[in-house]
Specification:
Number of strands: 23
Number of helices: 13
Shape: globular
CATH architecture of the domain at 7-14 and 21-65 and 206-280 and 390-433: 3-Layer(bba) Sandwich
Strand content: 15-25%
Radius of gyration: 23 Å
Largest sheet: 9 strands, mixed
CATH class of the domain at 7-14 and 21-65 and 206-280 and 390-433: Alpha Beta
């Protein structure tokens, strides 16, 4: 892919970790830390305003958590896959302008299996969602969605079969969406954010179509890991292992997980309110496994759920029509996702095949396995943010506030649209306008 003319990669390491950094003699109006969607959106807006801008990216590529693997005939999105809500969504517009192929996903098209039998074609948990809203009005202090769910089950006195099915549906609907367990999720702030209407669309041709236009014409330095940001009051110094960069302002767009890890030293230190928000918000982990087969052996429905007594290999998304190849996408979250990180691709293929055979005796082993592991990536440390027990939407607003000459962007700074690509994009534009 042709990237912006001025992306420059720093290969040399002029000084070791213990040596002094060299000063970059140029003075910038703004330094953007991170070349993900929020960083690129901010840099584009700043450049359009005539400001001299430099973007520093720790990785050897741009795009952040938008990353498409093009090593096979099927473009596989290691990062973001869906546009959530097409009506009025700026990401849908940008992707279409870039010529990307968007296919609407019908998550209501479902086949449910248990013990090798089809048992239904619906995953409605509307009753539990209504109970959640009632319970919000009853509580004086926040509680976990797990506690809410257990209370709901006790009150309803479901029989064993119904409870088993309900636990599966809640896990695949809620835990998968947020990348964590019910025990981590806040009841008080559950589903209190905003959303665009118009359905969910898979970017079958690759989400990376979004990135090149956003990066076009920008001054971006790759392999430039920022370790410290000093705000003197008269300007900022952004330090990597090799250089000190000077600017009037900085916009920090690294993911929540990176900020939580204290990988970047802020001088002066981040405020108590920001620190509390970082300590309280959660960073989810969604593990995607793309399984490519010799041929299709599964149902035509969009989603295939295999009800099991353990939290693995329970949900498969049928993307054969979108990709034009026999591919299933398996989703795992939280602890189940962390477990998969420790398995080889061969072990993953064997596990998936064994489970699929319980529903489809004529199943064949996968020919190719592609997995994700954002939790292991030092430059993301997770997939996206969520509201943990004790957190609130106000904490997203707190993380969005400038501190001195340092501004912040990223999906974790967007109160309305956290944990989304459009939330990241809009936050970058917001941070740029603040300058």
């Amino acid at each position: 892919m042709e990237i912006a003319r001025s992306i420059r990669t720093i290969f040399e390491a002029a000084f070791g970790a213990d040596g002094p950094a060299r000063r970059d003699e140029r003075r910038y109006d703004v330094i953007v830390v991170g070349a993900g969607v929020s960083g690129l959106a901010a840099a584009q807006a700043l450049q359009a305003s005539g400001l001299r801008t430099l973007t520093l990216e720790a990785r050897d590529r741009i795009g952040g958590r938008v990353w498409t693997d093009r090593t096979s005939a099927t473009p596989i999105d290691i990062g973001a896959s869906w546009v959530h809500g097409a009506n009025g969504n700026p990401i849908a517009r940008l992707l279409r302008e870039a010529g990307a192929s968007l296919h609407q996903t019908n998550f209501h098209s479902i086949t449910l299996y248990r013990d090798g039998r089809k048992i239904g074609d619906s995953k409605s948990i509307d009753g539990f969602y209504r109970y959640i809203e009632r319970r919000k009005d009853e509580i004086d202090a926040d509680e976990s969605l797990q506690a809410t769910f257990e209370r709901y089950v006790r009150q309803k006195r479901f029989d064993a079969d119904r409870e088993f099915i309900l636990r599966h549906i809640v896990a695949t609907d809620i835990e998968t969406e947020f990348g964590t367990q019910l025990s981590d999720l806040s009841l008080e702030w559950f589903n209190e954010d905003e959303e665009y209407k118009g359905g969910d669309f898979l970017v079958a041709s690759g989400y990376d179509a979004l990135i090149e236009p956003l990066a076009r014409g920008l001054d971006i330095r790759l392999r430039s890991k920022v370790s410290a940001i000093r705000d003197s009051g008269a300007g900022v110094v952004v330090s990597t292992d090799e250089f000190d960069f000077h600017a009037d302002h900085a916009i920090v767009t690294v993911p929540l997980g990176v900020l939580q890890s204290d990988a970047i030293k802020f001088m002066p230190a981040l405020s108590k309110a920001k620190t509390r928000a970082l300590q309280t918000l959660g960073m989810g982990n969604l593990h995607k496994t793309f399984l490519e087969f010799a041929g299709v052996f599964w149902d035509e429905t969009q989603t295939i759920d295999i009800l099991r007594g353990e939290p693995k290999w329970r949900e498969f998304i049928n993307v054969e029509k979108e990709f034009g190849r026999p591919v299933l996408l398996a989703l795992h979250s939280g602890e189940a996702a962390s477990r998969l990180r420790r398995l080889s691709k061969g072990e993953i293929a064997a596990e998936a095949f064994a489970v699929l055979r319980t529903a489809y005796p004529k199943a064949t082993p996968p020919l190719r396995v592609t997995t994700t592991a954002w939790e292991d990536d030092p430059y993301s440390r997770g997939s996206y943010s969520f509201l943990a027990v004790g957190a609130s939407l106000d904490m997203y607003e707190e993380l969005a506030k400038p501190q001195g000459r340092v501004c912040f962007a990223g999906e974790h700074t967007n109160r309305d649209y956290p944990a989304t690509v459009h939330g990241a994009y809009l936050s970058g534009q917001r941070a740029a306008k603040a300058l």
